[in-house]
Amino acid sequence: RKEYVDLCVNYMLNKSVQKPFEDFMQGFLRGCPARNWKMFFPEELQVILQGNTTFDWHLLEKNVVYRHYKKSDQTIRNFWTVFHKLPEEKQKMFLAFLSGCDRISGYRLECFRFCIADPQVKNPDEHCPHANTCYLILFLPR
């Protein structure tokens, strides 16, 4: 029985997917040659391909640039108070809203910067926060 189970497992996990995997690998290596990956340690390669998945949210706050705001403004203080009370899943959802991804890919968190800007609209209560994901700008009405 053990030999039969081993053969079935080998077929299901290896033989049955061998051709599609080889096709995928050939296409992947055409765009990302393996010789380029050898310069990275496995942990570095994981961050490059997968992105950072753990965050120091206070460091993120420290790296923010403000436009038409000061760090001491009440709107900014309220924003960070609420943000730090959110569960991590919601904080990652904010990151996805801001950047289009719930991870910071290829960056060390110390190097990741985004901007919180006042859109300077006449009736700020009539506007919702919105983001420019290309430039990592959060437009936060007062």
Quick recap:
It holds the Pfam family HECT. This protein is of the alpha/beta class and 142 residues long.
What does this structure look like?
The protein is of the alpha/beta class and 142 residues long. It has helices spanning 2-13, 18-31, 34-37, 42-50, 57-62, 74-85, 88-99, and strands at residues 65-67, 115-117, 130-132, 137-139. A hairpin with a 4-residue loop joins strand 3 and strand 4. The longest helix has 14 residues, at 18-31. It starts with a helix and ends with a strand. It holds the Pfam family HECT. Its EC number is 2.3.2.26.
List the helices and strands and how they pair.
Layout (H helix, E strand, L loop, with lengths): L1 H12 L4 H14 L2 H4 L4 H9 L6 H6 L2 E3 L6 H12 L2 H12 L15 E3 L12 E3 L4 E3 L3
Poorly predicted tracts of residues: none
Indicate the structural class: alpha/beta
Mean pLDDT: 88
Number of helices: 7
Biggest sheet record: 4 strands, mixed
What is the C-alpha radius of gyration, as a whole number of Å? 23 Å
- Largest sheet strand order: 1-2-4-3
Helix content: 40-55%
Report, as a whole number of angstroms, the end-to-end distance. 70 Å
- Number of E strands: 4
- Portion of residues in beta strands equals 5-15%
Shape field = elongated
Q: What sequence of helices (H) and strands (E) makes up the elements?
A: HHHHHEHHEEE
Keywords summarizing the entry:
single chain; 142 residues; alpha/beta; 4-stranded mixed sheet; 49% helix; 8% strand; elongated; transferase; HECT_dom; ligase; E3A/B/C-like
